[in-house]
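Closing statement on the calcium ion sub-project.
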Amino acid sequence: MVLAAGLGTRMKSSAPKVLHRLCGRAIVDYVLDAAIEATGSRPLVIYSPATEGVRDHVSERADTALQASPRGTGDALRSAVAALPADVDEVVVLSGDVPLVRADLVAALMEARAMDAAAMALVAVDAIDPTGLGRVVRNEAGTVERIVEDKDATDDERGISEINAGLYAFDAAWLRRRIADLHPSPVTGELYLTDLVAMARADGRLVGVLDVEDDGRLMGINDRSQLARAEWDMRVEMNDRWMKAGVTMQDPSTVYLDFGVELSVDVVLEPNVILRGTTKVGERTRIGAGSQVFDSVIGPDCVVWASVVERSTVEDHVTIGPFSHLRPGAHVGRRSEIGNYAEIKNSRLGEHVRQHHTSYLGDAEVGDDVNVGAGTITANYDGVRKHRTVIGKRVFLGVDTMLRAPLVLGDDAKTGAGAVVTRDVPAGKLAVGMPARMRDPKSIPPKDAPAPDGEAPAQ
Ligand code: UD1
Ligand code: CA
């Protein structure tokens, strides 16, 4: 069971706390990972009317139960037990807001309960700062007797540094029997799940305890500073893992990778690189300082200089940038060179396309070995609809060409500098002027030749 019905008021957010993102993924997703890995079963997530987004978010991987009006963790557990399949004999309870919990810790918790044949087991941490947390109260023999919540604790009890981490394993039969007996706290009016500890002891049953070091991993995320701290910890770990797998980072403290990113051997990530979502980077590719890549595939042996790449595919041996923007749907063929201030959107470029300077290709299909002159743009939008531009192989687009879509330029076509192309250009033809007229390429006189009659250039 994953408790995620709390309002998370300290987050000060319109979104449910456990849907806030940690390295590109919802907090609760990490908890589900640990739950599934440790138990091998489908989790049951408890949500409330205020956290319906949680239900929708987890529905693929988990069953859900509604806690109609959240009145504390005990009430949440009650709603969950009501929804529990009859054949379940052990229940593990995790908090939706503790994303750094590991599957091996959950497994150890289950062992701690099984070994003592206890009614329940919990995780205790000798906390550096126990403020706000439930304290573990033991008797002289060291046996755990009960948990006291911070708000209800006496000064003496507040002096206890051993805290309850909020992770539990239960004997399901015992839990089913006793869950109805929880009473609201006279102090807060909430039902405390933690009161089950004293109830187990009253029944003469043991409460297993798994003691763990305070490495900060089990601290729940309640506010945005804690979210940032958890993100930092996760990032340090993740970057370390990639470096051990053969990725170079000159300054890992400035490299931001989402959970779903995949990198290959000998990838180099320069400082201030952000790779988001499901981005994949091939072997030996260098992502230059200041680049941001979202949900894209960048092939091997590429270089990306200070550019932004979104939902695009880049084949191998391509250079991008500096200062280029690949927008969703860009596909750049191998050995292409996408240069300074180039923008590409929803376009497929063949092999060895060169688009070196200040230009825009949108809704275009570009053949192999095309040269895109500086300042060239596809005018793909007529104010109502987007139109396609199809550019054949080996086409040479002169500087400042305007391609008014829809348009087809045949193989080996050329355009002159400043051409405004409004009609299709047949294969091998040259289009010049504004709007462009068709010429035989051989008919263009050399620059210093006298102008033909009737076409004297303006003085
Ligand atoms: C709880 C424990 C405390 C422990 C701490 C560890 C109780 C009474 N106290 O306190 O002993 O030290 O966790 O982090 O259990 N939730 C619901 N429905 C509710 C209330 C909460 O689903 O009505 C969920 C929350 O979404 C959250 C989890 O239960 O995922 C814990 O709730 P929270 O309010 O954060 O409990 P704490 O006060 O932190
Ligand atoms: Ca909490």
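Helices lie at 27-39, 52-58, 73-82, 103-116, 155-158, 172-178, 195-202, 224-244. With this model delivered, the sub-project is considered complete and its resources will be redirected to Aim 3.
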